[in-house]
Records
---
Amino acid sequence: MVEMYTYIWLFVSYYVRPIYKWFLRKTTGLCELQRICYGAVSGAPRVRAVEKSLGASRSPQIAQLIAHLNNVSDNHRFVGQNGREIVSGAVSTVLLVKRINPRVHFQFVKSFGHCIQQIWGYRQLLADVESLRTTTYDPDNVEHERKLMLLWEALRPDEMLASRITKQWQDIGFQGDDPKTDFRGMGLLGLENLLFFASEYGNGPASHVLSHSLHPVHGYAFAIVGINLTSMAWQLLRDGHAKTYVYNTCKAVPSVRVFHQFYCYLFYEFDRHWLACRPKSMMEFSDIKTKFESNVKASLQDPNNVFSIRLADTV
């Protein structure tokens, strides 16, 4: 039965869809990309629809364009003036292939260009985040050590570290006396996520969450949970669930900062979820995390969702 439905879907996609698109073009005077950019809500609904349309195109020129944009974003070259020129070139290619007059459809040029920024900016963001994840924390690297010290200062501004290796690290949720061993799974990305949360939201959400982690009954290991949430955020970015957040948040090419902000939202909301579950010990972490992740994925299914930390709740 499943195979039959798959066959029907493939048949419709391959034969019926082009006829339907041709019919709409003849009756509306607009190609599918124009209809999307003029009719779909801005943000994730529009960008994802454009992404799907481009991916389904049978045009060799469009396929070549997609391969070029993939190469650019995978090699971190979708930035600055180079990025703007690439967007302009991509728009020009589509205008030519689809026979669209830019003087008449100037709004399409703007909307479609923004979609190009988001789609391949997201792909570049994934490459940037993966580069951080695969960078091993190195205690001999001065910059890595500086960031670790900044993390301590942001979370414990009134307390000095007795030494580089000390049990004090356990006060902010590391497993042992030396945090470097806890970064193995997520590399430098785990540290940068924690540091961003502690630095950007130190006077509100971060201190709020840290205080909850120290609860005598329902507490948890702040740093270890944070690194686990880095893994969750990375998985959501990699499998495409995070597109809803990124496409609804960014006005330009997404940067790693956007990923950090997404992580902060997850950490803050996980803390709320954890306390609502009232666990008796960290042994319940896996089940609670699984349920939380399912809830996040369900929320991300709504293309109109915009996530943000509710600062009023931290007062």
---
Amino acid sequence: MALKITDECINCDVCEPVCPNQAIYMGEEIYEINSLRCTECVGHFDEPQCALRCPVDCIPKDPAHPETQNALLKKHIRLTSEK
């Protein structure tokens, strides 16, 4: 399942540079996550780097985008083959 950034975001700029899929971008008010690019770091790391580094713990799983580990891995393969 993709992750999302909640309204508690303080725009600290920690999450965006650690995303290996460039899924995080600055929205109108806070950072946002493109669910089509978010793999929860599957294929890159053991855990999502953005959530790991977030100082306010505002990056939970997004129930609107449920995905299995296998689906996340397939997304990772698709994204890395685009490069």
